What we know:
Rossmann fold; alpha/beta; 10 helices; single chain
Amino acid sequence: MTQFFMITNRDLTDEGLGSDRAELSYFTSDGDDLGNFGNWTNVTFDRFKKLIIGAANSFPLITDPGRQEEQKHLTIFIHGYNNSWSDATRIYRSLHDQLYANSTGLGVIVLFNWPSLGAPTGYLADREHARACADDFADVLSNVYDWLLIKQKDAVEDEKKACRAKISIIAHSMGNYVLQEAMYVAWVRKNKPLLVSLVNQLLMVAADVDNDLFKTGETVGDSNGEGIANLTYRVSALFSPRDPVLGISAGLKHFGKRRLGRSGLDRDFPIPDNVWDLNCTDLFLPDTPSTQVHSAYFASPKILDKMRLILQGIDRTLT
């Protein structure tokens, strides 16, 4: 069975994937070195969809509500700012090996590889890239949403046809901005549904978005955070005040508005009851320098263990 999956809207270059936006394309791989573009195979959308559905159909069918933590996941990982295409595959491979590999893993993880400029001097331009990419990722979310509706109808007719995978998302850094904009587009595009969860668990890791993103609380209005809150069963924001990258980010835009990934949720506003945050400062490896905190979430065994428990939906029963 195919191990690695990538959706990208980067342009194709002689070296692999570039930093300009292009149409969505789809790749699979079983190679060890995912940073070698020659190990990826470009496939059609229909072929990619067939492989993903085939992988999900191979998961065990869990119908007992008391065993839902055993259900496998189809997870999408969205990388952050200043990641070349090969940087993104490196983090993706690490997540795969630590949380999704083999029969004891969580299921299947797919990389959404968007065209981050990969240059520290290009922060604001990178943010514009991220906003432009939101429409492309909204197309991905819309396709998943339509598939879930079909599976819900199938399950009504025959329980054995129920969806065997939970949909989850892990977004890092500015990848959360891509997600924020895309979820709102998808929510509006689907007529703002309130009764259907597209995403079971969302992990917003070191999120480079405003920390008052969910300030409308339970009210349905026209805020970007509503797409996330209303299409997701549970939102977990992992943050650390030690993150200097997000300190710089706050000073570059929004008149200094605090970053969710550095300050946690702004509790001056009502917060939806399915949104919470976790200060991960004490969970990093003891010798982690502050300059590496922004990406150290994926190198900390304690944080990775916490991610696993959150995705399984059992972290609240163990803490």
